[in-house]
Amino acid sequence: MCTSCCNTHHGTSLVKMGFPPHVTDGPLSLCQCHVEDKTKSELTTHGFTCPTCASKYCEVPVECKICSLTLVCAPHLARSYHHLFPLDQFTETPTEDLIDDTMVCGGCAKNVCKSETCLQM
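RE: above sequence
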């Protein structure tokens, strides 16, 4: 895929991201986010490691100070971009419009019928 023509014609841009593993029992080390702050610097065994350069960070999202890769975790990314692909607005189908008594609900996969018992549920 040619990024230069895509950027020009479609107005899109790509952001390179890394998904660092969360290490909970690694060797004692200092994270990159506190390496310059002497008051908060302490050796820890847990953190996120950059998949490109293996630098350690306390939390994500963050931009790696060594290789400039944007580090994120998948759940954060999903929560951040869910609004880009919104679901279609729900439209209720009146029971009179049901084609037959054996239609299946798209939400729960149960049969939908026109009986009074089903309509009261």
